[in-house]
Specification:
By secondary structure, the chain is α+β, with helices and mostly antiparallel strands. It has 2 helices and 7 strands, in the order E-E-H-H-E-E-E-E-E. It has a single domain, classed as Roll (Mannose-Binding Protein A, Chain A). The strands form 3 sheets. A 3-stranded antiparallel beta sheet has the order 3-4-5. It has a two-stranded antiparallel ribbon with strand order 1-7. It has a two-stranded antiparallel ribbon with strand order 2-6. The relative contact order is 0.32.
Amino acid sequence: MDIEIATNDLGKMSWYEAVGYCNANIGWRLPTKVEMNWIYKNYFKKGLGNFSNTYYWTIDELSSQYAWSQNFDTGVLHYYTKMHRNKIRLIKNK
Protein backbone atom coordinates (compact mmCIF):
# COMPACT_ATOMS: atom_id res chain seq x y z
CA MET A 1 0.00 0.00 0.00
CA ASP A 2 1.18 3.45 -0.84
CA ILE A 3 0.45 5.14 2.50
CA GLU A 4 2.40 6.89 5.22
CA ILE A 5 1.54 5.80 8.75
CA ALA A 6 1.82 8.29 11.60
CA THR A 7 4.59 7.35 14.02
CA ASN A 8 2.43 7.66 17.15
CA ASP A 9 -1.10 7.05 18.35
CA LEU A 10 -3.27 10.04 19.18
CA GLY A 11 -4.70 8.36 22.26
CA LYS A 12 -8.31 7.30 22.70
CA MET A 13 -11.19 9.24 21.17
CA SER A 14 -14.71 8.70 20.01
CA TRP A 15 -15.12 8.09 16.30
CA TYR A 16 -16.66 11.57 15.98
CA GLU A 17 -13.68 13.20 17.69
CA ALA A 18 -11.29 11.30 15.42
CA VAL A 19 -13.12 12.39 12.27
CA GLY A 20 -13.14 15.98 13.54
CA TYR A 21 -9.41 15.82 14.22
CA CYS A 22 -8.78 14.57 10.68
CA ASN A 23 -10.92 17.35 9.21
CA ALA A 24 -8.78 19.90 11.09
CA ASN A 25 -5.49 18.29 9.99
CA ILE A 26 -5.69 18.21 6.22
CA GLY A 27 -3.93 15.28 4.61
CA TRP A 28 -4.16 12.89 7.56
CA ARG A 29 -7.10 10.50 7.82
CA LEU A 30 -8.39 7.38 9.51
CA PRO A 31 -7.56 4.18 7.61
CA THR A 32 -10.25 2.11 5.93
CA LYS A 33 -10.98 -1.40 7.24
CA VAL A 34 -8.81 -2.86 4.47
CA GLU A 35 -5.92 -0.48 5.20
CA MET A 36 -6.08 -1.05 8.97
CA ASN A 37 -6.11 -4.83 8.52
CA TRP A 38 -3.09 -4.48 6.22
CA ILE A 39 -1.31 -2.36 8.87
CA TYR A 40 -2.14 -4.99 11.49
CA LYS A 41 -0.67 -7.80 9.39
CA ASN A 42 2.33 -5.96 7.95
CA TYR A 43 3.38 -3.76 10.86
CA PHE A 44 1.94 -4.86 14.19
CA LYS A 45 2.41 -8.61 13.63
CA LYS A 46 6.06 -7.91 12.69
CA GLY A 47 6.65 -5.77 15.77
CA LEU A 48 6.77 -2.52 13.80
CA GLY A 49 5.05 0.81 14.34
CA ASN A 50 4.76 0.85 18.14
CA PHE A 51 1.09 -0.20 18.11
CA SER A 52 -0.79 -1.36 21.21
CA ASN A 53 -2.79 -4.56 21.81
CA THR A 54 -6.08 -2.67 21.62
CA TYR A 55 -8.76 -1.40 19.24
CA TYR A 56 -8.09 1.21 16.55
CA TRP A 57 -10.83 3.12 14.73
CA THR A 58 -11.27 2.94 10.97
CA ILE A 59 -13.19 5.45 8.85
CA ASP A 60 -15.67 2.80 7.74
CA GLU A 61 -19.17 3.06 9.16
CA LEU A 62 -21.58 0.21 9.75
CA SER A 63 -24.52 2.56 10.31
CA SER A 64 -25.29 6.05 11.58
CA GLN A 65 -24.47 4.85 15.13
CA TYR A 66 -21.67 2.31 14.60
CA ALA A 67 -18.22 2.27 12.98
CA TRP A 68 -15.59 -0.44 12.47
CA SER A 69 -12.43 -0.86 14.50
CA GLN A 70 -9.51 -3.27 14.23
CA ASN A 71 -8.59 -5.32 17.29
CA PHE A 72 -4.78 -5.41 17.38
CA ASP A 73 -4.86 -8.15 20.02
CA THR A 74 -6.83 -10.73 18.00
CA GLY A 75 -6.77 -9.25 14.48
CA VAL A 76 -10.58 -9.27 14.24
CA LEU A 77 -12.65 -6.35 12.96
CA HIS A 78 -15.43 -5.28 15.33
CA TYR A 79 -17.97 -2.51 15.29
CA TYR A 80 -18.60 -0.17 18.19
CA THR A 81 -20.90 2.70 18.90
CA LYS A 82 -19.24 5.84 17.55
CA MET A 83 -19.20 7.29 21.08
CA HIS A 84 -16.88 4.50 22.29
CA ARG A 85 -13.27 5.58 22.84
CA ASN A 86 -10.72 3.64 20.77
CA LYS A 87 -7.14 4.43 19.86
CA ILE A 88 -6.38 6.46 16.76
CA ARG A 89 -3.52 6.01 14.27
CA LEU A 90 -3.72 8.24 11.24
CA ILE A 91 -2.40 7.68 7.73
CA LYS A 92 -1.98 9.76 4.61
CA ASN A 93 -1.52 8.96 0.97
CA LYS A 94 2.01 9.26 -0.38
